[in-house]
Amino acid sequence: MSHRPLVAIVGLSLSVLALPAAAQQQQLNLFNWSDYMDPALIEAFEAETGIDVVLNYYNSNAEMFSKLTAGGDAQYDVIVPSGYFMPRLIGAGLVQPLADEGASLAGREAIMEEFQTPAYDPEGRYTVPYLWGMTGIAYNTETWPDPEPSWGLLYDPETNQDQPFALLKGDAQFTFGTACAYLGHGFDCVGKDPWIEAAKLVSETRKRDNFVGFVDATATIEQLARGTIQAGVAYNGDLANKLAESPETYGKIGFFIPEEGSQRWVDVMAIPARAPHPEAARAFVEYMLRPEVAAQLANYNRYTTPNEAALPLVDPALREPPVMPDAQTRQRLVSTPSVSGDTLQLLQQLWNEALSR
């Protein structure tokens, strides 16, 4: 779930192995979060299959949804939404089953049991997990050497009276979840009363003089490194990646999961309803399910793989905090509930009100 800009990669057709004829010499249009795919994996897939891969990017689930409803479900072959967002895609008829009735994708058995039939896809028909991780608060350790691990660093004016800070851009339900957690309703709150309180808190927070705005998670890390902000919302893997790249630049950035609770997110692979190259899409998903490929993806992104067979192949650092949460931290993590229908409309209405007050 990274948001760093990356130049689009268009591969060259190389050798072709045993794939259905319709999948050979095709193009695969991958719609993904920015810098969330190892270019070497794309090159290897192209070399093995002869399928050209074109990458397109989005920075939020809402942006992806908007493009799919505007005809993108007939333009893209594979998408990588957040798991909790899948019921919206399924309900809108924007995705298709990964395999025919009674069939299964090769390699799916390697997925950890907890991700086989998740709440967002109970029968496991539409998705396979891509990566998973945590969302928490990144902060300047020189400004706060030992902060209380609380959402209060963002929401409490007394805890942070004058240091510039940001909230996460592009995800209404996540932001309401953080506000709910701070207010004592739990990160996985759903419903009118807690959301009204959350919307009020977000509106009040926006009016504070030291509130900078809503910022993408990776941009948060960059702004922390430059000193533009002193606290914001980030993903654990993004920070781990930056620290590995340049400890000197990012070494003063700390990270914690608030004691009130936060998000354990899962990103998944799915195929749009009218994908122009569905056979190539299934070939790509099966390729990504290979343990050695899943391990390479995790090593590239510094996130945790849901592929159990891949775990022995990942870097040792990915099996330790902050990438792999310890038992105490894991107890504070919950999945974002899926919402739809009237509940989703209420969420969007309250979010719009929170941004306009």
TrEMBL record:
Required for the activity of the bacterial periplasmic transport system of putrescine. CDD domains: PBP2_PotD_PotF_like (cd13590). It holds the Pfam family SBP_bac_8. Spermidine binds at Y84. Keywords: Periplasm, Signal, Transport. Belongs to the bacterial solute-binding protein PotD/PotF family. Its main location: periplasm. This is Putrescine-binding periplasmic protein. One of its GO terms (biological process) is polyamine transport. Residues 1-23 form the signal peptide. GO terms for molecular function: polyamine binding.
